[in-house]
DNA sequence: TCATCCCGCCAGTGG
DNA sequence: CCACTGGCGGGATGA
């Protein structure tokens, strides 16, 4: 059949089978399209009359010109599917015309030429043929059995190739294995749910973060100068098919739009070890990804695009499948393995389970082995999930309607507690506060003192207690964080001095707005919104790590003066930092920041065992936040509820800011306007995984030393982080590339337990309310679906539940209403269609069966997961294409199909 | 030259 | 035991 075969003379059973065109012994059992009587026309061949077995006609044997032959229909279908296939068909026709000559009469060369071209034998085309045989939505009551042998024979391919397709389809639950050599066809009945589940899995495994991380690293490794890099940052996909592809300019989305196979392979293998792996291994992985990608392309779940980069034109894939984001919220949480996307009776086991099984090397059978570094992430997620599952009475939140009624009361009680402390401590602060308010620092955003930062005295690290310091009228957004973990807080520049005044140990660093360039938002009413960010780090616990950050303030000041409007300044700032030879130079790179936006700090932070890394990530987050804030201004509310409006609902005249008073302190100073806030990031938490950093060895050593000093990383062999918070799968803490959207009046306080000394009671007292607040916060952060509630047990496995204040309930309600996550707002602001989001490209996976899940999941995760929450009407919205004017330069992308 | 991916070997699995 | 399954990598093909 092919050269190799012809030359080697090898011919195995399959070969013989393929060579044979003898009538099949059995009646064709393969279900053909049932939707309409004409469905079978789409199949490779019509259903044979019962009892009349016919030799499966070779495609070439059927006149290509007959519009009513199955082959012709298939060709029409395929041709309509894509230009490339059309081209293939054209080539095929040429081949067909050659094939009209009996092969027996062909010479050697002619025989060679008569053979179908490589393209004609591609897996993608084969998959098209295969899919054309079956209805997308078969009657599940019927016996939709697929016999691989028959299919292989009918399609004139080796059974091995059918396996390639079936494996992918099986992972999508489009088919299920009935028995050896037999599958059951389910069509797309379960596809959407499966995708949702896979998306969930992707989220759990932080694929999106990994993608971002790898991309970022790839980018950083490029030798281009700053200017070039900046230019590259503006690159984006511009598919030629503008009707269904929209580049989404969102924080972190710039480079997310297309994920190439290299990135996917690195994720699958584990980027850390890629360099150590045999290149052939990598190549193999890529090959598998091609296989999967071809099948998924045939399923129209992904689309191949080409992105022109500095290194040339690179292929990549973007998600073009159904929008599952709006429905992902209803998907079963991971903690419920019993949840299944399978609606088909044939699928007895949980899809989720199935996905998980294939995602994680738990099955006895040797499957695709996740790279150790990846396993860390995966196991971490698993562990968290396990804990959540194991939690007694872990309620499963499926939708907003199931929000535990106790939530408001919890919040209220917490708020009450906070209020009490606030009242007490505010007195002590009064003097200092007043002093600060009249300091050289201008009033934050020109707001009346009433609305300014209302800090509270920081407690010493030894003071292990909850410090829910919030204004009486404002529910706190509390994030349970590890006590021993240094936290990063992003504040408005005008608040930094205030903060540092409270605690000299805090390290304040400027965080430039990475996304300023190319994302000007001149119409922004609130230009004061985060022109720059100040990173406050508890140097007390990480003194070493702050050194490189000291330079920041002056820079920030400059930034503050120039505002966000000045891209040049931004770039200058960026360059300056780089030129300073800071150990953070890499992290500080503009692209790094951009890349981190959606990715969040998670992966990178995990890899980098130092606060600096986290800091950088936070910078990214801040950048994201800045961008986010900008987008908010132009929020066009896909949900019909303008962000501004929603925001306004949160605004309270007597907004007051509180300051977290903790060893690992952070607080969100607020002002009477919306601003990207609330990046409460437990730095050490990010260092649990990985050991690769972008820092020098010396820096690593220092950082590690600092880290161990402040806390112990389980991986480092130290005392495991005791906080139960870390047991919860909250990549949010790493990522948080979001605009917290806290009202100006809102305050983010973080209960911090003092290290291992925290007693269970203490923990409970902290965690219980925190769980509620965390839900709220996470929802705002877009890190969990707005309608998804994690119980205290789930989140914290704690007991006591706070009861109390009503305004918390209001907040929660708002949280529920504001299903639009930060990205959604960004989305709105950019008038981005859901479709474009969906089409943000995908990482591809390998190992056809197992890794198809990865692929799928990655595809899903390629888009900010929480985008989904923004598109309840995604199906409709996704069809709308809204042009995104910005970033039309730099990269040209063309669809392969 | 490189991206793409066909092809089939072969080891593991399971009836 | 043997067919099925699918991981894997050589190397052909096309741009």
From TrEMBL:
Composition bias type Basic and acidic residues, residue spans: 12-27, 85-118, 346-356, 629-638
Protein name in UniProt: Transcription factor E2F8
Polar residues: compositionally biased ranges: 619-628
Protein localization: Nucleus
Superkingdom: Eukaryota
UniProt KW keywords: Activator, Cell cycle, DNA-binding, Nucleus, Repressor, Transcription, Transcription regulation
Species annotation: Podarcis lilfordi
Gene3D superfamilies assigned: Winged helix-like DNA-binding domain superfamily/Winged helix DNA-binding domain
Domain E2F/DP family winged-helix DNA-binding: 118-187, 225-321
UniProt family annotation: Belongs to the E2F/DP family.
Keyword DNA-binding: yes
GO terms, molecular function: DNA-binding transcription factor activity, RNA polymerase II-specific; RNA polymerase II cis-regulatory region sequence-specific DNA binding
GO CC entries: RNA polymerase II transcription regulator complex
InterPro entries in UniProt: E2F (IPR015633), E2F_WHTH_DNA-bd_dom (IPR003316), WH-like_DNA-bd_sf (IPR036388), WH_DNA-bd_sf (IPR036390)
Principal location: nucleus
Region (Disordered): 1-68, 82-118, 336-359, 380-402, 619-651
Transmembrane segments: none
């Amino acid at each position: 059949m092919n050269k190799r075969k012809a030359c080697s003379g090898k011919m195995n059973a399959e070969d013989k089978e393929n060579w044979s065109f003898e009538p099949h012994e059995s009646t064709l059992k393969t279900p053909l399209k049932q939707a309409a009587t004409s469905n079978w026309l789409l199949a490779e061949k019509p259903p044979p009359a019962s009892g009349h077995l016919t030799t499966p006609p070779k495609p070439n044997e059927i006149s290509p010109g007959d519009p009513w032959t199955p082959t012709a229909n298939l060709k029409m279908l395929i041709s309509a599917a894509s230009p490339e296939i059309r081209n293939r068909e054209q080539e095929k026709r040429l081949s067909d015309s050659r094939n009209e000559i009996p092969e027996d009469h062909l010479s050697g060369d002619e025989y060679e030429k008569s053979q179908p071209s490589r393209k004609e034998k591609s897996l993608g085309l084969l998959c098209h043929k295969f899919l054309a045989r079956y209805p997308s939505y078969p009657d599940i009551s019927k016996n939709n059995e697929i016999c691989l042998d028959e299919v292989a024979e009918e399609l004139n391919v080796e059974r091995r190739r059918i396996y390639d397709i079936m494996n992918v389809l099986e992972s999508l639950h489009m088919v299920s294995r009935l028995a050896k050599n037999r599958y059951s066809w389910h069509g797309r009945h379960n596809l959407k749910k499966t995708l949702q589940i896979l998306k969930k899995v992707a989220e759990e495994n932080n694929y999106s973060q990994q993608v971002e991380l790898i991309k970022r690293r790839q980018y950083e490794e490029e030798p281009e100068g700053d200017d070039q890099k900046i230019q590259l940052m503006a690159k984006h996909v511009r598919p030629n098919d503008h009707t269904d592809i929209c580049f989404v300019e969102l924080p972190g989305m710039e480079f997310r739009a297309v994920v190439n196979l290299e990135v996917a392979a690195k994720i699958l293998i584990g980027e850390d070890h890629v360099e150590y792996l045999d290149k052939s291994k990598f190549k193999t992985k890529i090959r598998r990804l091609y296989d999967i990608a071809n099948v998924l392309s045939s399923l129209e779940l992904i689309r191949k695009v080409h992105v022109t980069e500095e290194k040339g034109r690179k292929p990549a894939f973007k998600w073009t499948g159904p929008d599952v984001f709006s429905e992902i919220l209803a998907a079963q949480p991971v903690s419920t393995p019993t949840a299944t996307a399978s609606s088909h009776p044939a699928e007895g086991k949980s899809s989720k389970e199935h996905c998980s099984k294939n995602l994680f090397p738990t099955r006895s059978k040797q499957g695709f082995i996740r790279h150790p570094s990846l396993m860390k992430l995966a196991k971490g997620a698993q562990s968290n999930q396990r804990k959540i599952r194991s939690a007694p009475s872990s309620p499963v939140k499926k939708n907003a309607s199931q929000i535990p009624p106790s939530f408001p009361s919890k919040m209220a009680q917490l708020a009450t507690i906070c209020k009490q402390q606030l009242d007490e401590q505010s007195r002590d602060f009064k003097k200092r506060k007043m002093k600060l308010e009249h300091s050289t620092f201008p009033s934050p955003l020109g707001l009346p003192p009433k609305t300014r930062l209302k800090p509270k005295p920081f407690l010493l690290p030894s003071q292990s207690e909850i410090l829910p310091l919030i204004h009486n009228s404002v529910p706190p957004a509390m994030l349970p964080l590890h006590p021993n973990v240094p936290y990063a807080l992003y504040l408005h520049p005008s608040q930094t001095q205030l903060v540092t005044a409270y605690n000299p140990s805090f390290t304040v660093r400027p965080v430039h707005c990475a996304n300023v360039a190319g994302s000007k938002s001149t119409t922004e009413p609130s230009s004061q919104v985060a022109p720059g960010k100040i990173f406050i780090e508890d140097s007390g616990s990480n003194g070493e790590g702050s050194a490189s950050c000291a330079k920041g303030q002056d820079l920030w000041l400059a930034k503050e003066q120039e505002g966000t409007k000045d891209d040049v300044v931004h770039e200058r700032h960026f360059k300056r930092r780089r030129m300073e030879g800071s150990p953070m130079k890499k992290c500080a790179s503009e692209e790094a920041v951009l890349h981190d936006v959606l990715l969040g700090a998670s992966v990178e932070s995990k890899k980098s065992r130092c606060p600096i890394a986290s800091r950088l990530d936070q910078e990214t987050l801040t950048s994201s936040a800045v961008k986010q804030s900008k987008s908010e201004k132009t929020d066009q509310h896909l949900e019909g509820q303008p962000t501004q409006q929603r925001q306004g609902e949160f605004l309270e005249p007597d907004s007051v800011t509180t300051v977290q008073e903790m060893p690992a302190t952070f607080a969100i100073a607020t002002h009477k306007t919306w601003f990207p806030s609330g990046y409460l990031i437990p730095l050490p938490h990010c260092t649990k995984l990985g050991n690769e950093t972008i820092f020098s060895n010396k820096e690593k050593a220092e950082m590690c030393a600092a880290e161990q000093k402040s806390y112990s990383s389980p991986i480092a062999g130290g005392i495991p982080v005791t906080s139960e918070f870390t047991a919860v799968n909250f990549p949010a803490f790493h990522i948080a590339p979001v605009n917290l959207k806290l009202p100006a009046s809102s305050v983010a306080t973080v209960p911090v337990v003092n290290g291992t000394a925290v007693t269970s009671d203490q923990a409970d007292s902290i965690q219980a309310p925190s769980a509620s607040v965390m839900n709220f916060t996470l929802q705002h952060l877009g890190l969990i679906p707005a309608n998804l509630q994690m119980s205290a047990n789930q989140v914290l496995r704690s007991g006591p539940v706070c009861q109390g204040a009503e305004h918390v309930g209001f907040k929660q309600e708002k949280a529920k209403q504001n299903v639009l996550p930060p990205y959604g707002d960004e989305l709105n602001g950019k008038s981005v269609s859901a479709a474009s989001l969906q089409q943000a490209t995908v990482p591809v996976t390998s190992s056809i069966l197992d890794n198809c899940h990865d692929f799928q999941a990655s595809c899903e995760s390629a888009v900010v997961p929480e985008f989904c929450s923004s598109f309840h009407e995604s199906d409709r919205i996704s069809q709308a294409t809204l042009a995104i004017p910005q970033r039309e330069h730099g990269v040209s992308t063309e669809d392969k199909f």
